[in-house]
Design brief:
The chain is of the alpha/beta class. 28% of the residues lie in helices and 23% in strands.
Amino acid sequence: MIPHFEAWLLRRWYGGVSPGFGLRAIAGVYALARRIPARPPPRRLSVPVIVVGNFTAGGTGKTPLVIAIARHLAANGWRPGIVSRGYGRKNPRPIRVEAGMAVEDCGDEPRLVFDRTSLPVFVDADRVAAAERAIAAGCNVVIADDGLQHHRLARDIEIEVVDGERGYGNGLLLPAGPLREHPRPCDFRVVNGDGKAGPGDVGMVLQLGDAIALDDPGKRRPLSAFVGSKVEAVAGIGNPQRFFLALEQHGLACERRPFPDHHAFRGEDFPAGPGIVLMTEKDAVKCHGLGLANAWAVPVEARLPAEFLASLLSRLGKP
């Protein structure tokens, strides 16, 4: 489950508890380190680059947004390539994601993006190198999944994603607060949460789809089929509570089982017996080989304003 220290931090970042002198002092050192001008100049590539990221640590809904953008560009004549650091993977070498590839090699988010889009996905700690490989493979636009702080990759469009419930928390830098850096203007500011977008923001809603059986991807059930049953809801994402609340808004009675983001699941993480388990897609890509009975992945779709998608295409121009 979520370690006590992580829960302790979240209470300070988002729960109104003072971070205290120690965390503030470390945050001051972090701020000074960020000001050291040691970064090389940005590398401009031969194709447009779109960076999707956030200024806070933890999940905000970046990956569903990347999937939605990549699909939309592909449907309008572009050949997108997605690049990612592949956080949490055990294989450090640069890699192109392939069907059925082990999550330990490529990372859970890159595997999910590939599974949902069938588009080229390149994983490398060096995002510039990953982008160059995408271009060499025939991609004519690059989408960086997380990378607002990776300044060596020059970008044509920056998209910030904000959790509409959490916002910027207490507004402090790590570790006193959730900020990786102080927010700055981007081309688009996408706010995840129904009714949470303010003037000038792009509203995004994550809509749950029919559940997909882990042991038989061809078997699907609407979430309404689980109403009245006891459900173990599992989420190892940046903000597990968002997933739990979304399930409960569909009328499900859930036993909430949060895990750390990018958690490497094992069989003992799940309850024994024939109970129903619902999990996020990001978690499901790591659980197919665990022999779980009655376990289901719940996909999400990012619902975005048509005006935003049209504006994105307008800024890119012709493929």
